[in-house]
Amino acid sequence: MDDRRDNRVVITILFLCLLWYAVSSSSNVVDKMLLSKFPYPLTVTMVQLTSITVYSGLFFNLWGVRKYSSNITWSYYLRLIIPLALGKFLATVFSHVSIWKVPVSYAHTVKATMPLFTVALSRIILREQQTWKVYLSLVPIVGGVAVATLTELSFNMIGLISALASTMAFSLQNIYSKKVLHDTGIHHLRLLHILGRLALFMFSPIWIVYDLHNLMYEPMLKPSVEISYYVLGLLFLDGILNWFQNIIAFSVLSIVTPLTYAVASASKRIFVIGVTLFVLGNPVTWLNIFGMTMAILGVLCYNKAKYDQRIEKQKKTILPNYYETIQNGNSSSFLVNGFASKHQSFAV
């Protein structure tokens, strides 16, 4: 029974990861196709936020996703949740600008620098120190991105800055999202829904003033109805793919360990880079590919170093508690209770 259950879990994880890779690659390809014909990254972002707002409320209720408690104070909203919504909006906009200005493969290579931002921001915000292995793992990441940048045939400074800004915003979002999930106990999918809805509400006036005015007088869409239908179809498809990608990513995160998720995420980036290079056919050199590979391998080394650091920290917290129990003269009861609880769990 246990073997069959384990096999089902493994098959489920593999299926979700493959689906995640396929949807993410499709989403990036559609983003590039859309933005090359429709250079409005702010509008594309608003469509994605609308998709999260509309689809999540309906489907989460049908799926029985736990509703969040209404006792979250307004001060907490103003202090953490609203800034998180702002970060989600900015991260998504900058991500779309980078995909618009540079090839998807290069944008994802630059996004591999996320561990660098995470380490720096955790040090500044949380006063968190890392091991020398973690710091050392950042070297191939920075080196790989540098090589990929210097050899990028379609280099664009706005694209590079936007990709870096998007990566930093996502790093901040990850740090504070963990804090909100820990403080409130809210379901991660409900948090996604709240952030999408807040971001849509806050930035709708900016979209109306900036992009809607330009769209109404943009001559590019007026001569051909076929182009208009094509763009609208891509916008609709992009919104669905982005929403579905978020759902799958959170589902994978909920059933695997942080290390497995980090490795799966890095593998997804490799898959996306490979698929977009094949489908979109942007020109690359062997040095460019070497830089991309070096950066991704650096991310995998970083994930392993963080896992080792976490295990070492757990050992340091467990051992003092054990010796304190021994010193207090409770060693026999400690061992008996441990033996009993082990057999109880085995019986279950």
Automatic annotation (TrEMBL):
Localization, UniProt: Membrane
TM region positions: 41-64, 76-100, 106-126, 133-151, 157-177, 189-210, 230-252, 259-280, 286-305
Record keywords: Membrane, Signal, Transmembrane, Transmembrane helix
Topological type in the membrane: Multi-pass membrane protein
Signal peptide: 1-25
Principal place of residence: membrane
Domain of life: Eukaryota
InterPro entries assigned to the protein according to its UniProt record, in alphabetical order: EmrE-like, Sugar_P_trans_dom, TPT_transporter
Gene Ontology annotations for the cellular component aspect, listed alphabetically: membrane
One Pfam family from the record: TPT
Ranges where the Sugar phosphate transporter domain occurs: 12-303
Protein name: Sugar phosphate transporter domain-containing protein
Species of the source: Atta cephalotes
Gene that encodes the chain: 105622122
